[in-house]
Amino acid sequence: MNSPRGHFGLSRPAVARGWSAVLCCAVAVLPWVTAAGAQSDGGIQVTVDRNQVALGNQIYMTVRIDGSPDEPPRLPELPDFRVVSRGQHRSTQIDNFRVSNSTSYNYLLIPTRAGTFDVGAATAVIDGVEVKSQPFTIQVAAAEDQGDERDRDLFVTASVSTDQPWQGQQVIYTWRFYSRVPVGQGSIESMDFGNDVVVEDLGEVRQFQATMEGVQYSVNEVRKALFLQRSGELVLPQTQLRVEVQVEQARRPTRRRSIFDDFDDLLGGGGRWATKYLLTEPLTLDVRALPPAPDGWNGLVGDFDIRAQLSRRELQVGQSATLEVQVGGTGNVQLLSEPGFPELPAFKIYPDQPDANIDRSGRRLAGRKVFRRALVPLVAGPLDIPPIDLVYFDPELGEYATRSTGRIDLEVVPAEGEEELMLTESLAPTTGKVAVRILADDILPIRRAAAGIVSAAPQGWRLWVWFVFGVLPPFMYLALLTHHRRERRYAADSTLRRRQRALRDALSASRKVRSGVGPGSAAEASGIVRRYVGDKLGLEGSALTPSEAETALVQAGVDGAVAARCRTQLERLEAAQYGLAAVAGGGGLAAETSTEGLSDLIRTIDRQIRGRRS
Amino acid sequence: MRSLALFVVFGVAPAVPGFAQDEDLPVVTEARSAAEAEGAPEPAELWVNGNAAYEAGDFAQAVALYREMREMGVDNGHLHYNLGNAYLRAGELGRAIASYRRSLRLLPRDEDALANLAFARRSARDEIAPPEPPVLLRTLLFWHYSLAPVELLRSVVVIGAAFWIVLAVRLYRRASEVLRWSSVCLLLGVLALGGSLVAHAAFAPSIAVVLPQEIDLHAAAGEGSVVRFRLHAGTEVRIVEQRPEWVRIELPDGQRGWSKREYLGIVD
Known about the structure:
The structure holds two protein chains of two kinds.
Chain A: H1 12-40, E1 43-48, E2 52-54, E3 59-66, E4 81-95, E5 98-111, E6 115-119, E7 123-126, E8 129-132, E9 136-141, E10 154-160, E11 170-179, E12 183-190, E13 197-201, E14 206-212, E15 215-228, E16 232-236, E17 240-248, H2 259-266, E18 271-279, E19 283-287, E20 297-310, E21 314-316, E22 321-331, E23 347-351, E24 355-359, E25 366-377, E26 381-385, E27 389-394, E28 399-404, E29 408-413, H3 461-492, H4 494-510, H5 519-537, H6 546-555, H7 560-577, H8 581-584, H9 589-593, H10 595-613
Parallel strand pairs in A: 2-9, 20-27, 21-29
Antiparallel strand pairs in A: 1-3, 3-5, 4-5, 6-9, 7-8, 10-11, 11-15, 12-17, 13-15, 14-15, 16-19, 17-18, 20-22, 22-25, 23-25, 24-25, 26-29, 27-28
Chain B: H1 2-10, H2 25-38, H3 43-55, H4 59-71, H5 77-89, H6 93-106, H7 111-122, H8 135-140, H9 142-146, H10 149-172, H11 177-202, E1 207-210, E2 214-218, E3 227-232, E4 236-242, E5 246-250, E6 256-260, E7 264-267
Antiparallel strand pairs in B: 1-4, 1-7, 2-3, 4-5, 5-6
Helix pairs in contact in B: 3-4, 4-5, 5-6, 6-7, 10-11
């Protein structure tokens, strides 16, 4: 089947492909063409939506720059307008294959006073070339000159309580916003009174309805207390409000209102929202200087009073009563300070923290401060507290005034016991708790116990007790240790034990021997000598013959004569033991069996053995 | 409290003779006998009269009587405490602080002496922190700072005796782990307390308290030397060097100066 033919004898798909290619090329080339077109044009144009306006309304101004400016335009000096930037937008046009673009900068001009004002040329720099717009004129009419002034939907006012205040006097500044159309969010963008004015807010924004010449308005009111710090002319600058306003759209007269329009209104869609700026008139005040101040004035300007009361009028010496002095009123209550308390030499005085209460919720700034003193009388008798003065400047009278408390009398009786300082009776205003304060401090009393006459360090015999108690235990331990080790050695080596104890055992046994010439005594004496020799030399002593004993002793290093004496004595004892008294020699036997004789022989042998070993 | 815990652990304090001073009346009798033999007023009489003078407001007389007790050899924390009170009432701030410090060396846990010392220090004019050991050191070596030297001595003796006894028992019961660890603990206790005792005796810092209302601190030991700075009554400083007539002190910031010895109350 043949495909349909288009222009120039090409088939339709071919034509479509051709247009697609052209379109792609056009899209690709477009930015370059645009740039070229922008470079070729250049100019600046300033337009306003109107050039005649009343105070309280605003003018929309647009600065349109053809081409691509290097930077935002420089606006002419506009000292009689507040200028608010509303953003910018770019646009591109294609006309006869010529592409051009432009940038529009939008501004809002809010006139600050009536008159005819020349708006000079705005300038911009395009590709390094400065271009200028044409000047024009704007006429601003005063609000009251407008015939429909009372028909305005929105307006703001500002007023002060007095335009000839005294320096430091409280001036109430009232700012009101009247509206009779739906408004959205609004904000006060400038309410700055400068450094010469101290500002205190008076409550939140108040809202109420007001009727002005038969027209009902919804009013938002802001109140501030101003305290002017210098004398002379003082201008309170304008206050600017920015608010969103619903603007009803123009309807086509031919179209009937439908049921959907009612729903639209109900849901808030019945119009568009526009931003509106409203300015108040500047206010000029003539601030009067204060006359020369008397003594005791501490800066208070307004209407003040002072009161004093004592918590108890009858008390004892040493007891406390609270003197409460209240100072308050309306005016510059921030300067409320302690009044001059009189000298009270008959009292101990303990100050307390003051309580302050400033009320900002009313129509004027008011406040009160309470100063307390705990008074403790030092003497008995009738006492009094003199009046306390408060000096302030009364702006109504235009002169300084003095208020005083009355004299307070009290009766003080002698104390029943020693002086007893009591805590202050001041109560914290919020908690109701008694504020405990340390009124005074002192050292703790002296000691009286007998410990004061005893030296801390041990003295006399106690020192010796401690010394012995400290030194003795280690020596006792060493002795015990030595004994313990010896016992262990003896337990491990019986020969050693016999050798070490040979002398002691032999001497001990010799003291018990029955001295004489009988067989019994000879047997005992012979046994003692032979056991000694055996124990000392590690032999079986009871089995030793006299000759073996002599030989063993000689081998152990005992002198031969001593060994022979031992042998001879043993032989004689053996002879006596078996009834051979004649052989034994009779007469000397008694001496040899005596304790002294045995001890002498044994000690002699022992010395010889120990001498040899050492 | 720490020392009490220490004693409870070892269970020996009540058994030590002379440990509880307040009931140690025989010593009072001895002192009285010695005084009677010399015809001088006895310490107990001075004590009572000094307290009475203090109560009557005659603080100078109270100071004189308390000092007479000191010259008789009576030395305890209670006497120094009363002496400090009398000095403070008499307006001698420096001597009062020195007396309270001496009291605390003998009764380191005495809360009354601590409170009165703090009270007296508030009257000192110079803003100089009194020389005190660091808190960490006082915590770690709590026994050293909470026990008086005499208490340390007695503790060393008692715990040492217990240590030797445990060692002796171990000779015959060598397998006992309880005895073994007990001996180790007791040995550590003896070493700690003994070391503390040695530190008290040999290395205790000497503190001086300024006695006159104002004194000059010289750059060198001599009246003609440059006056480096001045101190006021009640200021406590550390002594770094002592000569017969001059004492060199050091402030917490390291500044040093020489003062005449008579202007300082030295707390040894």
